[in-house]
Amino acid sequence: MSLFLVNRYLGEDENGSVSKESQSQALLAKLKQKAKEKQRQSLTEQTQHPSKERTERQNAKTKRKADKDNSQEPKHHKKRRSEVVPSIALDSDSQDEPVHEEKKNKRAAKETRKKKKDQSGSSVKGLSDNTPVTGRDGQDTGGEEEKTGTETVALKQTTAKTSGPTGYTVLGGFENKPVQKVNRVLPQWLAQPDVIHRDVKSNLVPIADIPELSALLVKKLQNNGIQHLFPVQAEVIPAILESAQQGLLIGRGGYKPRDICVSAPTGSGKTLAFVIPVIQVLMERVVCEVRALAVLPTKELAQQVCKVFASHAEGTALRVVMLAGQRSFAAEQASLSEHRGGMRRSLADIVVATPGRLVDHINKNSGFSLEHLRFLIIDEADRMIDSMHQSWLSQVVKAVYRSGSGAEAMSIFRRTEPACVTAASLSPPQMPLQKLLFSATLTQNPEKLQQLGLHQPRLFSSVHSPSNTIGSSSNGNTTPAAPAQKQGCFNFPQGLTEYYVPCTLSKKPLLILHFILRLKLSPILCFTNSRETAHRLYLLVQLFGGLQAAEFSSRLSPAERKKTLKEFEQGKIQLLISTDAASRGIDVDGVKCVVNYDAPQYIRTYIHRIGRTARAGKTGLAFTFLLGVQEKNFLQMVVEAGSPGIQKQIVKPENLKGMEARYEQTLQELANVIKDERAK
Ligand SMILES: Nc1ncnc2c1ncn2[C@@H]1O[C@H](COP(=O)(O)OP(=O)(O)OP(=O)(O)O)[C@@H](O)[C@H]1O
After folding, report:
1. Is the C-beta atom of 491 inside 6 A of ligand 1?
2. How far does the centroid of ligand 1 lie from the alpha carbon of residue 292, in Å?
3. Which atom of ligand 1 is nearest to the CA of 608?
4. Is 286 exposed, middle or buried (0-12, 13-18, 19+ CB in 10 A)?
5. Does residue 509 line the site of ligand 1, with CB under 6 A?
6. Res. 371: pLDDT tops 50
7. Where do the Helicase C-terminal domain residues begin and end (predicted)?
8. What CATH homologous superfamily does 496-679 map to?
9. d(CA 281, CA 106)
10. Do domains 188-412+427-463 and 496-679 have the same CATH topology?
11. CATH superfamily of 188-412+427-463
12. If you take atom 15 of ligand 1, which residue's CA is the nearest one?
């Protein structure tokens, strides 16, 4: 029974002999006496501190009212409240308490504050001194009172003060902490690249200074008129050759070459930086197999790179094949392999492909094998990463390691996907797959680069931006970048001068005509944002007359595009109006001027467009037509990207006057032509 004994407080004179009635009477008398004493005490205090007393009385009154309200609640609510209120009250999103309770609390607290406010000007502060305000109240009031300046501040202070002593963590508090800027932290290989000089002209390296180059290739380069290597070539060629010192295989000891990433300005000679070493490594091969694969985003680029490979492989046994859909699938298939005596024989050493056509051959052409692939070259790498959703890379990698478990695994070398390095895994000779990435605007986003599955990558870059500032690294793996860094600083060719031309929409075509007919800036490569604009501008210029123009977009067939590019290169076309189909990689010698008829939306697009001029250390001009609304954002974008400076070029209205009458007439003719086209 003693287990259930409940001890009660029965007053100091607890005595078993006294009756219960007398006990309670004694207790009551004692309480009354205490109450009297307290009353007397408060009276004396009141005479000394009248305002404080009043405040306390008000508080007590409010508290009593709140208690009364609470007493009407069901018991379990009361209990929960006493447990939960201080903590959840600070969380405005919390749904733990019933809504009516919240309202009552708010009302009670509000009343308290209102009365205090009436009492004195500093009432809000007074509240904080005497009555703890729950966070929820503070929050509501904070929201309302934000309209009244000084009071808001006082209330915020109140909340901050009260949150401390309660010992509860304030969630969603009012303290306005300054948000800390997050500094980008790059992996070491991205933050500390091998630096390439941006100025091509003053950093030429004589071919003789690169002893790694084979005599055959030196001769070939000289025959092609190349006596010096550009900075990117002087850095990257020896690095690739060094990684293939062991021939095509990894020797015992398991040295697997590092993947190589190159970020250098447009027109700085990146193509030869991979063509030369790949040819040199492969030209000693005995058996013909596909050992190098270059992937490019467009047919035109594939064609251009294929041409460079073919011209430098001349005189060797190497065969270069293009898979870009320029020819039929069957024709491409026939150029890749042949079957003799039931055996497949590869006819290609180097394949240059676009991703779509490449995947077609991997899946549908049994004669196409990548099991001997040694180099995977990804040109315009940032663009190729964006097309990763086509999963071309995973298909290539799958095709490369296809033989891992098959009968061919018994051949002299093994091809296994990179895994943990062990003594057993290293004993048979391995053929590595080395990735070589090139772009003028290589992303620094490690998340994007991760999609490429790079192996201990090494970066060569000509971006001398603060983003590459070497900071102290705590663990040696990452380097905090300088706080002032911009998200991305890009490569701008040294010989390029950038201008922007403020204009109105209706005057843009007239400006282009002025540039060609009056300023004689041709050949001009002009970019629009859509093929419709390109087509209409082309029609208008044709109708205006006096110059040779052509359009270049997906409206044309690949054959027509090829012909157009050739004619532009030959100087037969003064104005080539193109969509972004020609903005990347296209190398047309002698383009003096690029005009962005439509301002590009993205900085990368801008860099590639203007990079069609000022190539190979030459000079060039880039003009961007800007409408009033575009000016601010565009200029900001260009400056942030690290442009050396873009100048304003104003074309005075009187300079256009002589052409205006003819222009108006041409516009009317154009309307008829477009109507006819639509009817057709
Ligand atoms: N060492 C060299 N000497 C003279 N000319 C060169 C040399 N290397 C490359 N070139 C020429 O420079 C031009 C630009 O080269 P390339 O097309 O490789 O530039 P890129 O860096 O790939 O440009 P983009 O980023 O626009 O694709 C080409 O016409 C090429 O023939």
Report:
1. no
2. 20
3. 26
4. exposed
5. no
6. yes
7. 511-657
8. P-loop containing nucleotide triphosphate hydrolases (3.40.50.300)
9. 80
10. yes
11. P-loop containing nucleotide triphosphate hydrolases (3.40.50.300)
12. 269
